[in-house]
């Protein structure tokens, strides 16, 4: 296993809106995005106490009896509990050894886009058995969306665009939060059993807060798996496939996987920060010479729905 090549970037000045610090953080994030597609952000401004309480409430949720979790079983809008066996990263992979609870932008049924039947948009499914979950997790989710806006400003500047270029295309984002629980993985399950099998993320940027267990591994340019060790107080940020397309392959959407051989449960909190449903991701937006585009434009929502249909069993026609 190679030593970590994933840089830690201090974003205090970016979060505060300082122009010189924003430009410097943007350059550092761009460089990491071009090289490995992963970086850590430190001094991100989200209180540790909030993060810690999300971990604690997530633990409470996964400890609920099966029936209480099944009461919020994932629905068509991809909100709710996904039990063990619900996610598979590619054909031929074993199912991931994990459970998760998924939520997103809270929108009422009478919101015009929801009422129009836009896929993946609508209200969340919060467990009645645990009201503290919503009260902790939703403020955390909103804080990560704010962090996402800061990171997008830095990246836009680093690509020679207005600071708001990405940020405005991520208004009403298709961002999904996921509380993830990995049981301890017994060694006899084999080398091809993963907490999450090798995959790339589908969308824009992923913001991951992992507990101190370890187990996240990233493929580097030399084809070696590199540990993305937990670093207290930091988020791991990585580039997803839509950002890879948008930047015309300049930013890497790198394969990564989780193996939890620690002998204890592992927890992580992911926010998959994707643009708005109707946002068109077009590499020509970021090219000086539009004829160089390697990818056709795609609408974010259609893309994400297409990827979900493959990965999640509950969406399969046979159920
Ligand atoms: O839990 C982690 O460390 C990573 C999870 C992940 O890669 C994913 O859910 O896409
Ligand atoms: Fe991932």
From TrEMBL:
GO molecular function: 2-oxoglutarate oxygenase/decarboxylase (ethylene-forming) activity; metal ion binding
Any single Pfam family the record assigns to this protein: DIOX_N
Functional pathway: Alkene biosynthesis; ethylene biosynthesis via 2-oxoglutarate
Top enzyme class: oxidoreductase
Cofactors: Fe(2+)
Keywords, comma-separated and alphabetical: Ethylene biosynthesis, Iron, Metal-binding, Oxidoreductase
Residues of the Fe2OG dioxygenase domain: 169-275
Classification via SUPFAM superfamilies: Clavaminate synthase-like (SSF51197)
Assigned protein family: Belongs to the iron/ascorbate-dependent oxidoreductase family.
Protein name: 2-oxoglutarate-dependent ethylene/succinate-forming enzyme
Organism: Falsiroseomonas algicola
Organism classification: Bacteria, Pseudomonadati, Pseudomonadota, Alphaproteobacteria, Acetobacterales
């Amino acid at each position: 296993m190679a030593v970590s090549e994933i840089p830690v970037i201090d974003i205090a000045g970016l979060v505060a809106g300082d122009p010189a610090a924003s430009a410097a953080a943007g350059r550092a994030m761009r460089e990491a995005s071009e090289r490995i597609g992963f970086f850590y952000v430190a001094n991100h401004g989200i209180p540790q106490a909030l993060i810690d309480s999300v971990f604690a409430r997530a633990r409470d949720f996964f400890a609920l009896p099966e029936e209480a979790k099944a009461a919020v079983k994932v629905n068509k809008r991809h909100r709710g509990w996904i039990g063990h066996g619900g996610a598979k990263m590619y054909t031929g992979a074993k199912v991931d050894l994990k459970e998760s609870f998924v939520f997103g932008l809270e929108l009422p049924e009478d919101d015009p886009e929801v009422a129009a039947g836009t896929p993946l948009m609508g209200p969340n499914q919060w467990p009645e058995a645990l009201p503290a979950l919503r009260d902790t997790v939703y403020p955390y989710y909103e804080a990560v969306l704010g962090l996402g806006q800061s990171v997008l400003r830095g990246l836009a500047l680093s690509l020679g665009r207005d600071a708001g270029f990405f940020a405005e295309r991520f208004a009403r984002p298709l961002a999904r939060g996921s509380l993830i629980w990995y049981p301890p993985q017994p060694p006899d399950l084999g080398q091809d059993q993963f907490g999450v099998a090798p995959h790339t993320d589908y969308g824009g940027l992923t913001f991951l807060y992992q507990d101190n267990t370890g187990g996240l591994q990233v493929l580097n340019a030399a084809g070696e798996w590199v540990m993305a060790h937990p670093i207290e107080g930091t988020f791991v940020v990585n580039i997803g496939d839509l950002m890879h397309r948008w930047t015309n392959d300049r930013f890497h959407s790198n394969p990564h996987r989780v193996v939890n051989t620690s002998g204890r449960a592992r927890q992580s909190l992911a926010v998959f920060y994707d643009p708005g449903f109707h946002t068109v991701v077009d590499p020509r937006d970021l090219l000086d010479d539009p004829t160089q585009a390697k990818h056709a434009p795609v609408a974010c929502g259609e893309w994400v729905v297409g990827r979900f249909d493959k990965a999640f069993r509950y969406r399969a026609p046979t159920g």
